[in-house]
Amino acid sequence: MDFELTASMMCADFGHLEREVKELEEGGIDSFHIDIMDGHYVPNYAMSLNDLRYIRSAAHRPLDVHLMVEHPNNTIELFINSLHPGDTVYIHPEAEYHPSTTLQKIINAGLVPGIAINPGTSVENVRMLLRIVKKVLVMSVNPGNAAQMFLPYVGEKYDRLLDLKDKMDFEIYWDGACGEDKIREFAPRGVRGFVLGTTLLFGKGKPYGETLQAIRGFVKKTRDR
């Protein structure tokens, strides 16, 4: 099974954002992960709507937009209208009274509907939504900041979702503290994609293409054993 690598753009160099997008695409990145935070749902601010719009205009690869905001249904049109068909929008079910309504707006716009699951949210709490969405972004850290420590109990959540994904027709994505060991273990087991931030991709002083090629290489070696 193929897997995808997506760049966490909140970790990029915003002084040279056009260059960052170009070098990531030339290096073989599959998509761009855009973290939107409102300072309420999570105690931080990250990328803005204008950042999203700029990257969408500069990039040729899909965008994965992760809305860490309260009541996303109130502002979802702002994001929908800034994206292209085939881009993904993730919402947090806990942040909305009726998450299925917001997900339906995402679907109607020709976008890929997704939910993000916090470390403290059980699979059973979102089970019915798994029949609506196409992607499930599992947070292995508490959302709101980069460079956090992995929460080991989240591994059981991946086990549960891997058992359900084929039956309920969704793909699983990893977000947070994504190191080589996590990709080696979970890519061969069926986790579809991994959000890469400061742990593996950014701030390493070497070309993005070299890093991305190395990641794909060590997963291939793991599978071939």
List the total number of helices. Answer: 7
Give the % helix.
Answer: 25-40%
Q: List SSEs in N-to-C order.
A: EHEHEHEHEEHEHEH
Give unreliable regions as ranges: none
Query: Quaternary status of these chains?
Result: single chain
Mean pLDDT: 92
Helix-strand category: alpha/beta
Rg (CA only): 16 Å
The shape is globular
Question: Beta-sheet strand percentage?
Answer: 15-25%
Structure description:
With 225 residues, the protein is an alpha/beta fold. Helices cover 33% and strands 19% of the residues. The chain has 7 helices and 8 strands. An 8-stranded parallel β-barrel has the order 1-2-3-4-5-6-7-8, surrounded by 4 helices. Helix 2 links the parallel strand 2 and strand 3. The protein is globular. The mean pLDDT is 92.
Write the layout of secondary structure elements.
Layout: E1 4-8, H1 17-27, E2 31-37, H2 49-58, E3 63-68, H3 76-80, E4 88-91, H4 99-108, E5 112-117, E6 135-139, H5 154-168, E7 171-175, H6 180-186, E8 193-196, H7 208-224
Parallel strand pairs: 1-2, 1-8, 2-3, 3-4, 4-5, 5-6, 6-7, 7-8
Helix pairs in contact: 1-7, 6-7
